[in-house]
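Contributing new complexes? Match this layout with flavin mononucleotide.
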Amino acid sequence: MKNFLYLITAVLTFLSNINVQAQENNMTDKKILVAYFSATGTTAKVAERLSQAINADLFEIKPAQPYSNADLDWTDKKSRSSVEMADKSSRPAIADQVADMSQYNVVFVGFPIWWYREPSIIDTFMTSYDFAGKTVIPFATSGMSGIGDSGKSMQALAPSAKVLEGKRFSSGVSAEELKSWAEGLF
Ligand SMILES: Cc1cc2nc3c(=O)[nH]c(=O)nc-3n(C[C@H](O)[C@H](O)[C@H](O)COP(=O)(O)O)c2cc1C
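Output block (do not edit by hand):
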């Protein structure tokens, strides 16, 4: 009888562990941050829509020195963005820090595609925190380019994180589309 009770207890413990694991794989049990950089407002709108759709906190990656229109001129090789993007080691300063990064399990990182990849200020962001144990999910807006190798570059800058490939969205992407994309990742 005693052995039988031990067996029942073991089976129940096993089943409840499976249940806990299933719940941990669900997005609703994760603390999520949507961090974004946006020079002209397009990525900001998508980031806001995403954070509302998935109940995540929102953080703007603000440049310490904002980008002027002249800074963003990709036809000028000497503009600030051209100079930064031509130098892989460029790390433009960010104005504010995330208050407590340690509380998040998942960090979505949004940005405009600049020269087919993540802007240098995103590289600053990726090297500014300890991402150990966190999943980082890039998302982007662009004129037409895809997200390219942004995820790979970001992974190289934060080796302790698990950085997914991510996705490029058009500016008009709906909250429903963003939600089902995010839920499909977990
Ligand atoms: C310096 C610079 C470089 C860009 N490079 C690309 C590019 O390589 N491919 C592309 O499709 N769009 C490119 N764009 C367009 C932006 O990705 C696009 O307008 C984006 O949605 C802007 O987002 P934001 O309003 O959040 O800054 C570039 C824009 C700038 C300012």
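Reviewers usually confirm one structural detail per submission. For this one: Helices lie at 2-24, 42-53, 80-86, 120-126, 150-157, 175-183.
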